[in-house]
């Protein structure tokens, strides 16, 4: 069982397949040198999650997580050969790098007469499954989500029983490399691992009642509170979903989806559909990881000179002088997470007030987010930049001041993160006009 983005024991069909027919499970994780490119927060989080997974495998099954460092196309076949495994089981990866890597690993295994078997994926509905009547993929979320709801999500897979055979630690020790030194994350890390993810989910499901009897948090209040960054109105499960310490199947199975469209559970399930949608878009159009989905925007003038770099540095430091923008960027640096509403605001500000390439912001997010995910992040950025699917039209420019008045009326969120504020680095009205001028130039061209 080669673990990648599915770092849990429960609800994991690939693991059940690996242990079926009395096969002995060798649990493997490969630290790919490419992972060094991920920022310190995400590497530190992964370190904690791998330790937790290893501990679970030791405590429950008397085995251990076999760690290797190196090219998966070398390491996976080497371990498969050492244990004479006929099949290497994985949860399928649909992102561009993962697909390329898996093709190479499958080829290397095939040379040895072994196979790579993909069973399940990190998504409720696998990318490529939701198709229009003519067999082509959807480009817009709403019709996608209708079919997504009809696709039928499997119930959670059962826990592996005590009778599953695991390779004993004594057999694995000889091949196991030490983990890696955890980098200084530079931000507060949440509790990690499968049990922590299930706890987070349980407390989100269990809405706490306020003194006046109104529901003030949790999934039932999700639709009312999810846009207010000062409140804990969202699940904070994105790092867990990113690393697979919990699967969306587990979440969907616990939700009552019989309510109206604006019911908390329904709206929450739509967010999981957005996650699947972006994975689907990236799967069908892998070049859109870093390139405009709407290629008409390739000709949009963006600034990349030294002055632009200086503006970018001010943005990354949370020193733009716009309260909600700075609060979001400082929350990101301090916690490795940022509220969704604020992600949209800071992204719009970078593209439409500072006229910088969305890719600069997307890269910064990938370096600092604990949940950094190429599909959700880069398509979230393309949405904000107006270059992507379902894109907010380019001419709709978020006004950071009115956004703050609307979503942080009492200023609690901004006060929490911004202790010292700077002078506004730009005049929003002027930059809005400039953004629209560039759009007109693009249209005329
Ligand atoms: C510019 C930008 C960049 C983003 N980058 C990422 C990223 O790297 N990784 C990431 O997981 N999400 C990303 N998002 C989506 C969203 O902001 C986060 O998923 C959400 O804030 C995570 O908090 P939560 O777990 O409390 O979400 P909840 O509101 O509790 O939602 C539950 C889950 O649904 C999924 N989800 C929610 N909103 C979205 C969305 N708009 N798109 C895709 N999935 C969604 C997430 O998996 C989330 O954990 C980005 C959005 C924008 C606008």
Structure notes:
This protein is mainly α and about 450 residues long. It folds into three domains: about 1-120, HUPs (Rossmann fold), CATH 3.40.50.620; about 195-285, Serine Threonine Protein Phosphatase 5, Tetratricopeptide repeat; about 295-445, DNA Cyclobutane Dipyrimidine Photolyase, subunit A, domain 3, CATH 1.10.579.10. The protein contains 19 helices and seven strands. The strands form three sheets. The chain has a three-stranded parallel beta sheet with strand order 1-3-4, with helices on one face. Strands 2-7 form a two-stranded parallel ribbon. It has a two-stranded parallel ribbon with strand order 5-6. Strand 3 (about 30), helix 2 and strand 4 form a beta-alpha-beta unit. The longest helix is centred in the N-terminal third of the chain and has 22 residues, at about 40-60. The chain starts with a strand and ends with a helix. The model has no long low-confidence stretch (mean pLDDT about 95). Bound molecules: flavin-adenine dinucleotide. Flavin-adenine dinucleotide binds near residues 238, 274, 347 and 373. Flavin-adenine dinucleotide binds near residues 236 and 369.
């Amino acid at each position: 069982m080669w673990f990648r983005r599915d770092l849990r024991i429960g609800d994991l069909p690939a693991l059940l397949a690996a242990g079926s027919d009395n096969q002995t499970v060798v649990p493997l994780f490969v630290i790919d040198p490419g992972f060094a490119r991920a920022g310190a927060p995400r590497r530190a989080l992964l370190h904690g999650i791998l330790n937790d997974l290893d501990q679970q495998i030791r405590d429950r099954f008397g085995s251990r997580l076999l760690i290797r460092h190196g090219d998966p196309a070398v390491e996976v076949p080497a371990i498969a050969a050492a244990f004479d495994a006929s099949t290497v089981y994985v949860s399928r990866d649909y992102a561009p790098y993962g697909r390329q890597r898996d093709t190479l690993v499958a080829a290397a295994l095939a040379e040895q007469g072994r196979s790579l078997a993909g069973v399940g994926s990190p998504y409720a509905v696998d990318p490529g499954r939701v198709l229009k009547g003519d067999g082509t993929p959807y480009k817009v979320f709403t019709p996608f989500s209708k079919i997504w709801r009809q696709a039928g999500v499997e119930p959670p897979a059962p826990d592996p029983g005590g009778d599953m055979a695991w390779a004993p630690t004594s057999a694995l020790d000889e091949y196991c490399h030490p983990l890696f030194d955890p980098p200084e994350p530079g931000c507060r890390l949440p509790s990690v691992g499968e049990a922590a993810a299930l706890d987070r989910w349980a407390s989100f499901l269990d809405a706490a009642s306020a003194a006046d009897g109104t529901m003030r948090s949790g999934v039932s209040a999700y639709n009312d509170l999810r846009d207010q960054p000062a409140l804990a109105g969202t699940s904070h499960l994105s790092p867990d979903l990113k690393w697979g310490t919990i699967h969306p199947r587990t979440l969907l199975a616990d939700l009552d989806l019989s309510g109206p469209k604006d019911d908390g559970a329904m709206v929450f399930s739509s967010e999981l559909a957005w996650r699947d949608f972006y994975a689907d878009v990236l799967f069908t159009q892998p070049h859109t990881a870093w390139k405009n989905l709407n290629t008409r925007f390739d000709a949009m003038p963006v600034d990349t000179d030294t002055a632009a770099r200086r503006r970018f540095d001010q943005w990354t430091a949370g020193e733009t002088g716009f309260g909600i923008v700075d609060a979001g960027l400082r929350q990101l640096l301090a916690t490795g997470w940022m509220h969704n509403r604020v992600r949209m605001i800071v992204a719009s500000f970078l593209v439409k007030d500072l006229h910088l390439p969305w890719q600069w912001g997307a890269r910064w997010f990938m370096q600092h987010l604990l949940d950094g995910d190429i599909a959700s992040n880069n398509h979230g950025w393309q949405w904000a930049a107006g270059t992507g699917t379902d894109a907010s039209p380019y001419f709709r420019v978020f006004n950071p001041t009115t956004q703050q008045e609307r979503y942080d009326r009492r200023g609690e969120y901004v006060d929490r993160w911004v202790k010292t504020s700077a002078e506004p680095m730009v005049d929003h009205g002027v930059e809005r006009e400039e953004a629209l001028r560039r759009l007109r130039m693009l249209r005329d061209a």
